[in-house]
Automatic annotation (TrEMBL):
Record-linked SUPFAM superfamilies: Cobalamin (vitamin B12)-binding domain (SSF52242), Radical SAM enzymes (SSF102114)
GO molecular function terms listed in the Swiss-Prot or TrEMBL record: cobalamin binding; iron-sulfur cluster binding; metal ion binding; methyltransferase activity
PROSITE patterns on file: B12_BINDING, RADICAL_SAM
The keyword Transmembrane is annotated on this UniProt entry: no
Cofactor: [4Fe-4S] cluster
InterPro entries per the UniProt record, alphabetical: Aldolase_TIM, BchE-like, Cobalamin-bd, Cobalamin-bd_sf, Elp3/MiaA/NifB-like_rSAM, HpnR_B12_rSAM, Methyltransferase_Class_B, rSAM
Record's GO cellular component terms: cytosol
Name of the protein described by the UniProt record: Hopanoid C-3 methylase HpnR
CDD domains: Radical_SAM (cd01335), radical_SAM_B12_BD (cd02068)
């Protein structure tokens, strides 16, 4: 069976600061290929719709699957599915991915019958079973995680082990187009899957049922050795939760004499707890870490259910700086912010040496704030759910909110990529250009053409083609967390953590319910 796996186009933030290889889709493609299917991948982040139709014509797939990890990509995916169905009436069309797993039936209804099913949960665990059921003409709802307009299959299942399936990186064209910051080109890799915490704005834990699973150091070492790119982005939701695992991978890298540069994302409390792990990783190539502070005051942290004091956050930043790591902080701008609040944030960000990224509070299906946030949505247009548009009422007039937001983002961008920093920036860009890599150089000049209040207001003025389901009436009452999960929680046995780390996680999350 011939399967074409498709990743949709870039979103607002990824048009400037990063473009990551579609690792999840490569894992699904690898799993399907392991089952004997002929597989191809097209990534519309680096190719276009004309390339897609050319690939359809040449490959003549029996099945096409779309990766739906981001809500803002839903309109593009649905339109492509409808047109693909028109051109190939008998093709098997299905979707999967993180965000679509939470809204499966709604997306199916919008497709007007073009899409056969949605595959919820870990696609690499069940794509083989799904393709087999289709080939044999069996009821698709016998497959775990399948949702059709007529019914739903058994609950999604996990891959038996993260060592089981490797990504089909060889199928991806234009590999040198992937980058993140100065890591150009960059490959992506996962060391672990899942997150044991439970922040209200995040759906990683509701997707994975608060599980936390790891790949073996040996398999990770083999994979790193095979990757040709000099830069590696570790895509774990929280890197090095388990210190022993992080050190085992580091030792494997040393044993194999692998020379790479690494970026990763972690929590401040994990960094402070596992200082030795990060020190060792600095020695073997770690250069850049993202730390999600989310807020710069206690009230904000409480809203996002992050039981990390501001003192501990600042202590973590100091430690990262002491290792000579570049630190990028993520803050979440609430629609309630006024001019004074934006100005306070700007001044704070300018006083610290670190890079700061700002996104907008956005309730997503699968998060607790989707259920509990009492402010009504001002739009249900899928395109605007990209954490760069305000989809809830703003205290400032919307135009002014965007002006303040973009002004803040522009000041922070200039701090590290503007004229004052151009000497270092240009030096890096020229060194990369001499190696044929221009992603970072292009990024430097793209900001104003993408982050623009007039463009954001124009996005709101467009009539929505596809709208999200109505958000439930939010209340301050406790949310029934069982209704949020894609993979149901299995408790302690689903987390590959030692007892001390399990205790640490429980002490640093706000809820005590699994």
């Amino acid at each position: 069976m011939r399967l074409l796996a498709v990743h949709p186009s870039s979103l607002m933030y990824t048009k400037v600061f990063l473009r990551l290889e579609p690792l999840g889709l490569e894992l699904v493609a690898g799993a399907a290929r392991n089952k004997g299917h002929e597989v191809d991948i097209i990534d519309l982040q680096v190719e276009n719709h004309a390339d897609y139709w050319e690939r359809i014509e040449k490959f003549r797939p029996h099945a096409v699957c779309f990766s739906g990890n981001y809500l803002a990509n839903v309109p593009e995916i649905i339109d492509l599915c409808k047109e693909t169905r028109r051109r190939l009436p008998n093709v098997f069309l299905f979707m999967g991915g993180h965000s679509i797993s939470f809204i499966a039936r709604d997306v199916l209804s919008l497709s007007d019958g073009a899409v056969n099913c949605v595959l919820k949960g870990e696609g690499d665990a069940t794509v083989g079973l799904l393709l087999e059921a289709w080939e044999q003409g069996r009821d698709l709802t016998t497959v775990p995680g399948v949702v059709t307009m007529d019914g739903e299959g058994p609950p999604p299942i996990f891959v038996e082990t993260l060592d089981e399936v490797r990504p089909a990186r060889d199928l991806l064209r234009h590999r040198r187009k992937y980058f993140i910051g100065t890591l150009d080109p960059a490959a992506s890799i996962e060391f672990a899957r899942g997150c044991p915490w439970d922040c209200t704005f995040c759906s990683a834990w509701t997707f994975y049922g608060r599980s936390y699973r790891t790949a073996s150091a040996e398999v990770i070492g083999e994979e790193l050795q095979e990757i040709k790119e000099p830069g590696i982005f570790i895509v774990d939701d929280v890197a090095f939760v388990h210190a022993e695992h992080g050190l085992a991978i580091a030792n494997e890298i040393k044993r194999r004499n692998i020379q790479k540069e690494y970026y990763l994302e972690t929590r401040a409390d994990v960094l402070l707890r596992n200082k030795e792990v990060f020190r060792v990783w600095k020695e073997i190539g770690l250069s850049y870490i993202f730390i999600g502070l989310e807020a710069v005051d206690a009230e904000g942290l409480k809203r996002f259910r992050k039981r990390v004091s501001m003192d501990r956050n600042f202590e973590a930043l100091d430690y990262a700086r002491s290792l000579d790591l570049i630190v990028a902080i993520n803050l979440i701008a609430d629609p309630s912010w006024d001019r004074e609040r934006f100005e306070v944030i700007r001044q704070w960000c300018l006083e610290i040496p670190d890079i700061v990224n700002i996104s907008v509070t956005t309730p997503y299906p699968g998060t607790e704030i989707w259920e509990s946030e009492s402010r009504k949505l001002t739009t249900r247009d899928y395109r605007l759910f990209d954490i760069q548009h305000a989809v809830m009422p703003t205290t400032l007039p919307l135009q002014e909110f965007y002006e303040e937001l973009v002004k803040t983002q522009q000041i922070l961008n200039n701090k590290h990529l503007g004229w004052s920093a151009i000497k270092d920036t240009l030096g890096i860009a020229l060194r990369l250009a001499l190696r044929g890599q221009t992603n970072f150089l292009t990024m430097i000049w793209k900001f104003n053409s993408v982050f623009n209040p007039k463009l954001q207001m124009a996005d709101h003025a467009q009539k929505p083609k596809y709208e999200m389901p109505l958000k439930p009436e939010g209340t301050d009452q406790k949310v029934d967390r069982k209704t949020l999960y894609v993979h149901g929680p299995a408790g302690r046995k689903s987390r590959k953590l030692d007892d001390d780390t399990e205790k640490f996680v429980d002490e640093t999350r706000m809820s005590t319910v699994d």
